[in-house]
Amino acid sequence: MRTRIKICGITRDADLRATAEAGADAFGLVFYPPSPRFLTLERARELSRAAPAFLTSVALFVNASEEEVKRVLEVVQPQVLQFHGEEPPEFCRAFGVPYVKACRVKAGVDLLEYWRPFSDACGWLADAWVEGYGGAGTGFDWSLVPAVRAKPLVLSGGLNPENVGEAIRRVKPWGVDVSSGVESAKGAKDAEKIAAFVAEVRNADG
Fold first, then answer.
1. Active-site residues: which are they?
2. Which of 29, 104, 172, 193 has the fewest CB atoms below 10 angstroms from its CB?
3. Domain at 4-205: CATH architecture
């Protein structure tokens, strides 16, 4: 199986090009205002329109309003939605667009029980529990991820070129999602780190 790769928190044209050229499968656009990777609608639309064919655009939200999500869908037209907050399942499915539901993992959280109401999601994402909802480069105990899953599982949280190979061999996720692990500064990706991350994923697959 080939592990899918998403580079999240894209803010610059050069970073989008590096993501595509390295062979990643998807790029993430962040619509969470406290994040240093937050995008205006206009900037997100520019990036989305600049993406080459077959590179999937993913819009990330944290406890956004229905109006905010609808506005992003109207202006940016992402292909997938990614919800990282406490959004209920009826909210996530209300837009008629494929979505991924994230669970912030910490000891005592039953991931399968958390995800059970989101049975119509196109994927489940396991991320580290941190204040501020992700993008902090913080990892978590991979042993907390269930081995049997009803949906494609995406692993996130503290991944980088140095540890993603081990993460894939241990967790065997359907995909991996990285942001700060391939950055030179918050909101600025490093093309060499992106290429190295993708290469390590491919090595682990091989």
1. 8, 127
2. 172
3. Alpha-Beta Barrel (3.20)
